[in-house]
Fold this sequence. Notes:
CATH topology of the largest domain: D-Maltodextrin-Binding Protein, domain 2
CATH architecture of the largest domain: 3-Layer(aba) Sandwich
CATH class of the largest domain: Alpha Beta
Number of domains: 2
Signal peptide: 1-28
Domain Solute-binding protein family 3/N-terminal: 46-265
Strand order of the largest sheet: 9-8-10-7-11
InterPro entries: Iontro_rcpt_C, Solute-binding_3/MltF_N
Shape: elongated
Strand content: 15-25%
Number of strands: 12
Keywords: Signal
Mean pLDDT: 86
Helix content: 25-40%
Pfam families: SBP_bac_3
CATH superfamily of the largest domain: Periplasmic binding protein-like II
Order of helices and strands: HHEEEHEHHEHEEEHEHEHEEHH
Number of helices: 11
Amino acid sequence: MTRSSRPILAALTALVLAGGLSACGGQAAGQDGDALSQVDYVFDNALTVCSDIPYEPFEFRKENGDFTGFDVDLMKEMADRFKVDLDMIDVAFDDITSGKLLNEGKCDVAVSAMTITGERARALDFSSPYFAASQVLITHKRSGITTSLDSIAGKRVGVQADTTGETYLRDFAPSDTEIVSYHSRDLQRALANQAVDAIVLDNTAAGPVVDNNPGTRVAMEFNTGEQYGMAVRKDGNVPLLRKLNDTLTEMRDDGSYQKIYDKYF
């Protein structure tokens, strides 16, 4: 089980080093100071954020339809400090991780409880990590699944497509485990309808899922050493990336990050 953390941590270490180099390398590449400090937004006076919603408690809708959640509140605070409006857009997760929406100029930044990985870093530029997480397996209480990964042999397990949970299960689950990929909004429905014996998702999202699905429980947790990051267009928005990192540091130092964290966790 401990093997699972190594590739993710290695990719994260390489990414942080690469991010530091790219953030410092603009002037060496011939860019001037103004170019490195001027943030160009997709829309004037607005920070446009792409996110795959819902994924409670990170991003979901209130009863009145407004977006809320840890990621949403974090970006609201960022936008306030940038002195711009916040515009949240609900999109498919794989359109974020592929870099498609950022490259097409649909949004300035993507924030969606997204783990930093080496593969994703080839399509996106990540901020400094802003959240640590791991993966859990949620199952029906009478499924026969125990705390051992071997107990899902022959079982049907749902995962969110293009996530580290899917990667982990395909790497380490018994060969006769049936792994079924879903979009995030369909994953909990599959569990509730017993279309699957279990699902895998981030540990921080497990509480609301178990609460909303009586008769389910967390069977096991996988220590994957994951870190979430905000993403901008690859090699195309160094000023915004720096601004995100600097503001995240400020928010940690002045306690506002902790205040938002305590609200949801």
